[in-house]
Amino acid sequence: MSDTPQHSPLPELPELEESTDQATEVSGLLGQMITKVSSVFAIGFLLSMATLIYEIVARHVFGSPTLWAHETTTFICAVGFVFGGLYCAARDKHIRVVLLYDIAGPKMRKTLDICISLVCMIASGFFAWAAWLMVERAVFTPTGDIHLETTGSAFNAPYPGVLKVFLLVVLIVLMVQFLVQAFNYARKAPIMPASHTSTE
């Protein structure tokens, strides 16, 4: 008889799978589309890392620094962070204060889910309006011509203008996503909280 302690196999994580399925169901087709394109923005972070490595080698090994590396990596990362908020909402993983939510029953949780989604939609709408005010100044000249705001450096890329337009688009999509979630929460049957379910 061996004295070696027997370790039980690692438990499965059904809660994680349920959470993923529930997020997909609640966020609808729009959420699925957002999730599919998220890989592009994830690759962007790898691209920004590769750009910085190139800049280090060019500067310190060959003595030939670039004009574009730092501004480009900052822009790529900023785009990724902006999209990250939309991705979290689509996956229903945004930060919540769950003090009341955890002790609520199924019907109250459903009501809270709907209210949270609607409040987030309204807040996204206000932020989208503020973003539009920035876009007006960053994209249009006083005469009405289109001229994207630039960095003002030697490279002088139109990154600020592009980023502000992207922010506006993301906030509009975010507003629609929260509306979709509110609608889907309203049509769903109340779900029994995990703490209230019986286990055998």
From TrEMBL:
Pinpoint the Tripartite ATP-independent periplasmic transporters DctQ component domain residues. 49-181
> Which ranges of the sequence are coiled-coil?
none
**UniProt keyword annotations, A-Z:** Cell inner membrane, Cell membrane, Membrane, Transmembrane, Transmembrane helix, Transport
Q: Which Pfam families match?
A: DctQ (PF04290)
Q: What is its main location?
A: membrane
Q: Tell me where it resides.
A: Cell inner membrane
Q: How does it sit in the membrane?
A: Multi-pass membrane protein
Source domain of life is Bacteria
Family matches, as InterPro entries: DctQ (IPR055348), TRAP_DctQ (IPR007387)
Could you confirm whether the keyword Membrane appears in this record?
Answer: yes
Q: Where are the transmembrane segments?
A: 40-62, 68-90, 111-132, 165-186
Q: Specify whether Nucleotide-binding is a keyword of the entry.
A: no
| SUBUNIT field | The complex comprises the extracytoplasmic solute receptor protein and the two transmembrane proteins.
| Biological role stated in the UniProt entry | Part of the tripartite ATP-independent periplasmic (TRAP) transport system.
The family note in this entry says: Belongs to the TRAP transporter small permease family.
Q: Under what name is this protein listed?
A: TRAP transporter small permease protein
Q: Top-down, what is the taxonomic lineage of the species of origin?
A: Bacteria, Pseudomonadati, Pseudomonadota, Alphaproteobacteria, Rhodospirillales
